[in-house]
């Protein structure tokens, strides 16, 4: 039996001052304009594909950091003329933009930073490097070993040198400290939006929170709009607005990241009567859960924060379980859904461990969803999600 959203609720379009949400839905046009203006003014532009790349370090080089992860189904067919079809849709979508030349942000990039988080991305970078200026960050994968961190610190130091060489400048300690403070402020705003999901009943939907993600860091206009979004949320509290019925099952979404155009699973969960209260993925809370320490050696602090990200490329990845336990408690989750993009082997295999942890340690219903960017399986996913939501009643 499908669950409904018929309880007391106001449509998002009628919620108090929805301008900030509208801004983020179309922010890409502002980002393209901003990056073009910055490039024309002589600033460097640095693209990257993963949370492990420190935006702080790029800002310290007076460059603009841009996340270039592909979230469009439209570029995948182009990528498949070169790459294998049975590859992660995020890798194919990202590469497809390079083939088509259809991403101004990628086209404006002076340097691409490539992180070795999975074999598919690592080899795709080799193909991409034939036409793009690229620097590879080799990510070691044993988070519990200090020697692994020392290797990672060396990689971050080499990225600093690459940035200095590329843009003909010196990244001073003071520039690093200033960039850390700026990025910590940005992380706090993103985290504050993520923490809106703690409200019960919900005052924001998971889809709305997902819309506030953006590609260009250090863009003051984004920061102001995040503040407006938080002010809107406070108005909702004061006016008794509910983004979902009080009894709506609260879902903790974990696994692979989403982005504009790939919110299919979030949409389905909320169409079926649930509400995504937090997304653990790096497109959600994972990348902002920890700040960079403003004490001690700034480069080491930058390296340490990013090394601590609990990605499935790490082994063992106990920190992901720790985070899930904390989030399930703080957001009063009723169930956990694990999103795995097809051919994402690290998350797919790790889902075995996450299934056991969620069921046995957290005592919550769990479901793994393996899918891609297409909409062909929406109806099938709706049936599965509806079944899971009924288990929470």
UniProtKB/TrEMBL annotation:
Gene3D superfamilies: 1.20.1270.370, 3.40.50.11890, 3.40.50.11900. Keywords: Coiled coil. It comes from the Bacteria. Signal peptide: none annotated. InterPro entries: FldB/FldC_alpha/beta, YjiM-like. Residues 142-189 form a coiled coil. Belongs to the FldB/FldC dehydratase alpha/beta subunit family. This is 2-hydroxyglutaryl-CoA dehydratase. It comes from Photobacterium jeanii.
